[in-house]
Each structure stands twice: as C-alpha cells, then as structure tokens.
Specification:
about 200 residues, alpha/beta, two-stranded antiparallel sheet, Rossmann fold, seven-stranded mixed β-sheet
Length: about 200
C-alpha cells in the first residue's frame, strides 16, 4: 500500500480514535518510561498523532511545546479541534522535512506503516532531528529479518513493515544515538517499542 492509501484507511478510523471507545491508556506507560530519560522540556513532536490527543496531552502535561504530524486529513481535522492551540502538520513523514530540532519525538504505531525500503532513511531522519540528549520512542515489529504484512484486522486494509531489530539497532548506533530500552510489551504479539537517546556529544 502507498502512503496515500494508508491515509485513506486512517481517514475511515478517525472518529473511532477520537471516541470514548478508544483505549486512551494505549502506549502511555511506555511514554512515561521514555520521558524519564529526558532532561529537557522544549520542543516535542508526535508523529502519526492521530485524533485521540492522548500523547499530546501527556507531552503538554510535562511542559513540552508539543506539535503533531499525521498523513490522514481526517485525523488532523479532529486533532486540531481537540487541541486548537497546537501546531499540526498534515504530511507524509517520508517526504516531510523537520522544521527544527526536537527534545522529544514520539512515533507510536506510526512509522511501521511506511514502505519497507524507506525505513532506514526515515529513521535516520527522525534521529537527526533530535537535539543532543533528546529522546525518541517508536514502535516496530519484533522480527529479526525485514518483513512486510497486509491485513484488515482494524477493518480497512492496512500495511505494516519492519526492517528487523538488528537493522534498527545498527541505524541507531550509526546515528550517534543509544538504545536506552527495547521491549516486547504485548507478548506473544511481536509488538516492540524502542527508546532512543541522542548522545550529548553529537549534533
């Protein structure tokens, strides 16, 4: 699936993500762990922010100047209504250029939708956008080799890809960053979240 097709699938899910039936605690404990590594409360970005606003609320609570990015127009419209004071970007992370450095970046259940061949470049771009000491949390598939899947478990068709944990750890190391935490948090599902910190001696 192309990013444009992913956007259409998420357009159809925007109201569900915005409603009371969506589990608002999804990913919050993991983000609290990531925030524990952060010493700065400056700029923060939620990549694939969706419409629930739960991660943005957490970032605001911790004193960050939070922004959101999503490829789905439906998600962005609802997110802007929920948080009119926040800057949102309607864009494809594969094409988008970061306007500034960030002290915290979340990519929770988002960049695993990008085309497999784009993962290396996009993850490097995200880590390059961290300020020294900045923290990034993202999810990926807990596989050893590159993997692609297509299913309709959420209703509309959805594509997932993962470069494999060895490749991700190599990208992190070559980006002047360190892996602070890696966990299979929904075992036996192969859902992994990774916490990365940009080393202070890198720009």
């Amino acid at each position: 699936m192309s990013p444009e097709e992913i956007a259409k699938s998420y357009d159809s899910l925007a109201e569900h993500w915005n409603g009371d039936q969506f589990p608002r605690e999804n990913g919050i404990d993991q983000h609290r762990r990531a925030l524990g590594f952060s010493d700065h409360c400056g700029n923060a970005l939620d990549i694939g922010c969706g419409s629930s606003g739960r991660i943005l609320d957490l970032l605001l609570h911790h004193g960050f100047n939070a922004e959101g990015l999503d490829i789905s127009n439906g998600m962005i419209e609802l997110a802007m209504h929920r948080h009119p004071q926040i800057t949102f970007y309607h864009a494809d992370i594969c094409q988008w250029e970061f306007p500034k450095k960030y002290d915290f970046i979340s990519a929770w259940d988002s960049i695993w939708h990008i085309p497999l061949q784009q993962h290396d470049r996009v993850l490097r771009k995200i880590l390059a956008a961290l300020s020294p000491g900045g923290v990034c949390i993202f999810t990926t598939g807990g596989v050893d080799e590159p993997s692609e899947t297509l299913d309709a478990a959420m209703g509309p068709p959805m594509y997932h890809s993962a470069p494999g944990i060895p490749a991700i750890l190599e990208i992190i190391a070559k980006s002047g960053s360190a892996c602070r935490h890696l966990e299979y948090d929904q075992w036996p599902d192969l859902h992994v979240y990774v916490i990365v910190q940009k080393l202070d001696n890198t720009e």
